[in-house]
Amino acid sequence: MKRIERKHLKENELADTLEAARGYLEPRKSALTTIALIVAVAVVAIIGVGIWRDRSRAEGERALAEAMVALNAPVVPAGVEGAEGVPAAAQIGATGTFATEEAKLNAAVPKLKAAADAYPNTDAGVQAQYHLAGALAALGKHAEAITAFDEVVERAGDDSLYARMARLGKADAQARAGQLDAAIETWKGMTADGNEIVPQDAVLMQLARAYAQKGNTEEARKTYTQLVDTHPDSPYTPEAREELENLKG
Predict the structure, then answer these.
(1) Distance between CA atoms of 67 and 90, rounded to whole angstroms?
(2) Per the confidence metrics, is the pTM higher than 0.70?
(3) Neighbours of 230 (CB within 10 A)
(4) Contacts of 148 (CB under 8 A, 6+ apart)
(5) Which segments of 1-160 does DSSP mark as H helices, in order?
(6) pLDDT per residue over 13-37, tens digit each?
């Protein structure tokens, strides 16, 4: 009898629980349905964004690879002959060669720009933008290169490797454009943060040269001395010592 009574009690408890749940859910059915739909839409959106990002990443990498084929193509000057007197650029495997470095860069620039603009928020897009800036600088288009290097920093983030390399490229472009004051400020900023991603000895050497070129021998001497004292084993140190002797003379 006790077993039967316990069974009835459990059945009653279950019935009461189900009834209470039904009583709670029934007036809230519409709201709960709306919440369920919102959750379902959010899940679908998250999955869709993930698929879109993966596709954009893959397409960006493909576009970057195509641009790099042109950027890394060998340069074969006109008239150079290979085996058996055949022009080197016409030999098997020489597809994509260019007669001059300028021709190669001019072919690569639009491809790099297309990849950078089409996929700006992907790693491939940032890399394309960085190589675009370098190609523009190599072509002597310093103003465009400086703008492109700034875009790399904005896209990649201040502390990224590409951002720091872009600042180094920007300073070099500024110096080549005759903007020595701007270049000096860029290099000084790179020495101040103390980050070792970009070799500090290389930055100090460029900074010292800029001071010397500007005629600021005092700051040039200080910077060469800092390089010698803090980086005694640097490949730049012998040149820095030589420049210090020249400044003394």
Answers:
(1) 22
(2) no
(3) 12
(4) 129, 132, 133, 136
(5) 2-25, 29-71, 101-118, 123-138, 142-156
(6) 656 665 665 665 566 556 546 665 5
